[in-house]
């Protein structure tokens, strides 16, 4: 295998092992076996399990979500929520996210790394969407992008992970209208 | 110990063990030791670990939150969010909730039990708050209590568990105003 192929194989093996057995029971041996590489190939790249998992997961969490300007804040929101709800329902993500959150509650280093990766990504997304809406005159100047993140992603996550109710187009439309109303009503 | 005291001791032991070692590593032996009772005292009450943990956790999740009518929807919301954010930040809850969510992602029986317990409680809360607001003329007739739950609890949970930003009075006030705006703007 080429060097880049090995990295991809390891990354896929880590994600699948995380989904199947969770961080606590994940072993470098099992990752190497699954990726079809030797353990040295792993130790050449990362010095331990924590470092390996955190780098791979952060890379994915920080990937840019392509968000074309749909022309309205409600449209932008609906598109973002559609993408996020698909991502959260993905077979691998829906196993890995709760597992890593449980690890984060026990291990401050995991909590800080994940928080850092998610913050960067979410802040950038919210600034883009809110910025566009302010320019269009849809939201008041000074709308808080952090509050926007909580309102855009929190209800979706709650519904998927906690109430476990299905999310359809109608719900996304209703939620997008609600969040637009929320940001108009929030004092900046 | 009296019968009721034994049940309380077991319940406390289960919650503390859950917080410390998580569901996966929790053992009936450790719970008995911690509660100062014999294993038979546990097996007289529950036939296995899953049944024991689910009954105890559901009981707590279903406990009524006392919610006095503050006279306005924004006031009711702020009070609810204050109580929920304190509960989610509680030392034991902040360990147990992510752990059980991770278990729920692996075990459909855990997912269904937790979902059932939370749904009943949240639905009742939302119906009460939304009902009062509709009576006061603050929200339109037909406002969806399920959407209200997602909007009232999702952003708080996201902020506490995922972005891990602090929640102060100012934020709760801002969020309460936003959620009120959201429910006014959502098509019923």
Task: Please describe what this structure looks like.
The structure is a homodimer of 188-residue chains. Chain A is an all-alpha fold and 188 residues long. The first copy, chain A, has two domains: 3-48, Arc Repressor Mutant, subunit A (Orthogonal Bundle); 62-185, Tetracycline Repressor, domain 2, CATH 1.10.357. Chain A is built from nine helices and no strands. In chain A, helix 4 runs parallel beside helix 7 and helix 5 packs across helix 8. Chain A is elongated. The first copy, chain A, starts with a helix and ends with a helix. The mean pLDDT of chain A is 91. Chains A and B meet through helix 6, helix 7, helix 8 and helix 9 of A and helix 6, helix 7, helix 8 and helix 9 of B. Chains A, B: Residues 27-46 bind DNA. Chains A, B: Keywords: DNA-binding, Transcription, Transcription regulation. Chains A, B: Residues 4-64 form the HTH tetR-type domain. Chains A, B: It comes from Actinoplanes lutulentus.
Give the structure's gist in a few sentences:
Chains A, B: It comes from Actinoplanes lutulentus. Two copies of one chain form a homodimer. In chain A, 79% of the residues lie in helices and 0% in strands.
